[in-house]
Design goal:
Chain lengths: 589, 589
């Protein structure tokens, strides 16, 4: 017979229903729950039944954690995750809220305890803080304290801080447990009688393709790059994008803004911010990402090999990302990362260092594609390909989408690809039309100038470009296969290469594919091609191809200050872009 | 106009259809294909369209590779994978066949080459051999040779050898590529114009639960274990199982056959064999797995921590596997591995070493469950649980299966679990019936004997067992949750524990759950319980519980030679069993 929720009275009867005895059983019901935002709406709900498991997709569940890799402090800064204490209340915004809720008697029975705990493996990847009554945030759990008693009170708000990005040895999943411990007697250890578990996935680092809207353009100022700087500044201003110039005192002549860093971001239901991936390249620009970018709500991450030399393939001109693609029915709505490595058939090629490759693959949501870039002297994928939006085709695209006929998003952009025979064909056309004497590098001085006839007569150059074409065709096949592209999705640009002493290739004239893409505006290396009726034939061809896509071309003179140093506009610039509207946890993996 | 398959004649006409010229184009079509058993029927098919990707399930595809961890050689033996050459033709049976097929002209055009290649990352996990005309098997690819030219001939049979099991840093997948290289001119490197890729998954190491049929029983012979040896020998002979006795000169007194090793197997469509996992425990039995088990078609693998001390939880009495289970709709048709670790709430407990845990988790097909075993002095899961088949229920099971009502296979076995109150209840029953003076350890000498009354009066013992019960209840909850068991699936056995000085528990009398399971025959530690009418009350209870399941009990006296040394029948024996009929690649993962 139940007397109340917490008391049970038991009456013992004899055979003749006489009462033999009475007993009262006191019940203590204690409800404890560790709560997180398992449904990913930005709010911590109450005891979500799915909080202990993590699944992908719009119907998925499981909480999300950011690596707290920005810096709340301006002076003596360091990523917040490197500090064991909280320096500013705003830092809590970068952490995931977690609530410990209890229901039951005003106090736990004597000897009972609530304990929060993590495994040794997880302890190096996560910290838990909680605010005490004086609004300080003491550490509850970290790599030194794997288990700690927490107060028994109706509601305790806690904050969970992520410390490490997913990597080769870390799938991104972390668990935090709450246990109610029961004492047996003073002589023995307490034993858990109930454990509640929540799971977090650390948000991946996500790259932003050229099709996303720019926010800020980055370039270096050097003694000799005025025409370039003027060109880029004009483009940025035209669209009201922010422009950040890194001056000589900081860049020390290192102008390769593309190569030192890659912009990306991290995202969660409660917070998101940009994160720069610092290349292990470490030229004279090496302090720029840490000194100038790391800051409040601007994160920083790097991967540096321990016992391996870095090489030119470790520069981030060799790290790009495609727009969204669908490949054989498999969707990559955040695109696919593209890197360049050595030919698989070659045992002695240069490669991107393993720690960076491992990091990129471990992010999972933009599964990388490896191209062959070691055939190039500098060895960067941005020397022979880029992606441009195709705004003119977007309406068609929308229509197809409504008709449910679309199975590839690739129509909203095009892959631009160098293609040598396009150049030879164009030059032969000029020759046939009587322009064989027209000069490349016209006006750049007699040492540079060379006629169309001379180029077409150069057998050695022709055979070098036959070789290069083979290398490019290989990559074209890989891109078609791995990005699900048709020939129609690829636009071939007229480029010419020449080989250096080690049989590796460099652009013969400014490499137009190495452009900056700012919405509909393209900043293209001025090719200094042969002139017909006063107009550069290469520019004319390029402009005609791009205008058909609804894009505007601006040709930027980077001949002396970049091209002669084996780079172009793209190598010398960088763009921070808006994040994807699609949230990564909604991917179906 | 096509003249033949390999010649195209082109005629140029003028406006008035007059012939302007003629040209003949010579076409060379070369078909190359790297073929494997991608459909897993034991035969290498021709150019399977799915050979380049690996998927799970009955409809899955992708080839399978064994770690060549047995030893063809009897003298100076070592796992074959540790040798760079093939010592016996029979070794080819342990490798996966791969065929390079070509079709086209009798010879490749001048300068063209076929090359087989692997990535640097894969090179430490795989080797490729091929037989040349004198029937020797030279190495084609290994960690020193990542790329090698292979002959252009109609059919070349190759053999692929696996070297490493899946582990924390290796998901088990490997790729081998074949490329056709085209020369441009002597001055430049050749470039691949076509690449064919095959993928292999290295077969996981699979454990065999008690419900699988025994093949061979393993025990040690020591100076003092005659009654035990006789009992086990009798059981094995009764069922015609092979018996392997490890004699004193080899075991040097180390009798814990369960703890030094775990039997498992590896399986592929073309070959399968048992593989022993050698424990890092390394007692005096440490050479037994390598010296006595490793051999032709008997593999060997071990994992030893580099800078960590091993402890008692690293013995393989602490490594078991459940029969097939279904948990919340998720099937584990090969069961789940069970290990024992420290309480998650405890920061200072003993754990199974990380390298062994990593290995077990990486096998994937028997996803492990971690129980809490650190509360035990010896710390092994086999001290408080085991699985027995339930042959009497199998017909019911089959019926349910036909009716398609079954969603848990657990009915074909039962989890046996120690349960202390069962023992106290049984002893109180004896006391009430006037048998309080009956003695445990009756006949084992006055130092050992103790009466039922004395045990029930021992308050300290009672409180120790209250603590132990809490530890066991925790494990019971975990097992129910992680194996999808009902209370009906669990049979509680009467066991009593006592605590040692460090508050860790040992069995008070021989721990009946620590039994050997050989089909329907159970070899159970003789408990030496209190006698009623000349019959041991504990044996009577145990026999009654087991007979209800259709199982036969044999009680084996291991009191002096095992129990007093803190182990029992299971700790002192091991059983090699038949593999699962279900092939692991048919799992839906």
């Amino acid at each position: 017979m139940v007397e109340s929720d917490s008391k049970l009275s038991v009456t013992y009867y004899g055979d003749n229903t006489e009462v033999l005895g009475k007993a009262v059983l006191h019940l203590t019901a204690i409800e404890v729950s560790l709560d997180v935002d398992a449904d990913r709406d930005g709010v911590v709900e109450k005891n979500n039944p799915h909080k202990g498991a993590w699944t992908w997709g719009p119907e998925g569940h499981g909480a999300i954690l950011l690596v707290n890799c920005d810096s709340e402090q301006f002076y003596h800064k360091t990523p917040d995750s490197d500090r064991k204490h909280i320096t500013a209340v705003s830092d809590l915004n970068d952490m995931s809220p977690m609530v410990l809720r209890t229901k039951g008697p005003a106090q736990l029975p004597p000897g009972y305890k609530l304990t929060l705990h993590i495994s040794r493996g997880d302890a190096e990847k996560v910290r838990v803080f909680f605010p005490d009554f004086v609004k300080r945030y003491p550490l509850v759990l970290d790599d030194q304290v794997l288990s700690q008693e927490v107060p028994y009170q109706e509601e305790t708000k806690l904050y969970v801080e992520g410390l490490r990005f997913p990597d080769k040895d870390f799938d991104g999943l972390l668990k935090i447990h709450l246990s109610l411990l029961e004492p047996i007697s003073e002589d023995f250890p307490e034993t858990p009688i109930y454990t509640d578990t929540v799971v977090f996935r650390v948000a991946p680092w996500i790259m932003t393709p050229n099709t996303l809207e720019p926010v800020e353009v980055f370039v270096c100022s050097t003694k000799d790059n005025y025409p370039f700087l003027k060109g880029i500044t004009g483009l940025a201003k035209k669209n009201n994008y922010k422009l950040k110039v890194c001056y000589e005192y900081k860049n020390r002549g290192d102008r390769w803004m593309q190569d030192e860093l890659e912009f990306g971001y991290i995202d969660s239901p409660h917070q998101h911010f940009p994160v720069v991936l610092d290349s292990p390249r470490d030229g004279d620009l090496k302090d720029f990402p840490y000194d100038e970018l790391l800051g409040k709500d601007f994160g920083y991450v790097t991967r540096v090999p321990e016992d391996e030399e870095v090489n030119s393939l470790d520069s981030f001109g060799n790290l790009e990302v495609s727009p969204p693609v669908t490949v054989n029915g498999k969707h990559y709505p955040l695109g696919r990362i593209i890197i360049g490595v050595a030919f698989p058939t070659s045992a002695h090629g240069r490669n991107m260092t393993k720690v960076v490759q491992d990091f990129l693959w471990a992010q999972k949501v933009q599964e990388p594609v490896a191209l062959f870039s070691d055939w190039l002297y500098v060895g960067h994928v941005d020397e022979f390909m880029t992606f441009v939006p195709a705004p003119g085709q977007r309406r068609l695209e929308m229509l197809k989408h409504f008709l449910n006929e679309i199975d590839n998003l690739s129509l909203i952009y095009h892959l631009l690809h160098t293609y040598l025979s396009v150049c030879y064909k164009l030059f032969k056309g000029l020759q046939n039309d009587g322009h064989g004497k027209a000069k490349i590098f016209d006006g750049l001085g007699p040492d540079e100038e060379i006629s169309v006839d001379e180029i077409l007569d150069n057998e050695r150059l022709k055979s070098e470009n036959d070789y290069v074409q083979n290398c490019i065709d290989w990559n074209r096949d890989v891109l078609k296969r791995e990005l699900g592209l048709d020939d129609d999705d690829i636009i071939d640009l007229p480029i010419l290469f020449k080989l250096m002493e080690d049989n590796r290739a460099v652009a013969y004239y400014p490499d137009m594919v190495n452009m900056i893409v700012l919405g509909k505006e393209l900043g293209i290396p001025k090719p200094f091609g042969p002139k017909v009726d006063g107009r550069c034939a290469l520019e004319a061809e390029m402009t005609s191809l791009m205008e058909a896509l609804g894009l505007n071309c601006t040709y930027i003179d980077n001949f002396a200050s970049y091209h002669k140093l084996l780079g172009e506009v793209h190598c010398g610039s960088n763009v921070r872009r808006k994040p994807f509207e699609l949230r990564w946890w909604n991917l179906e993996m």
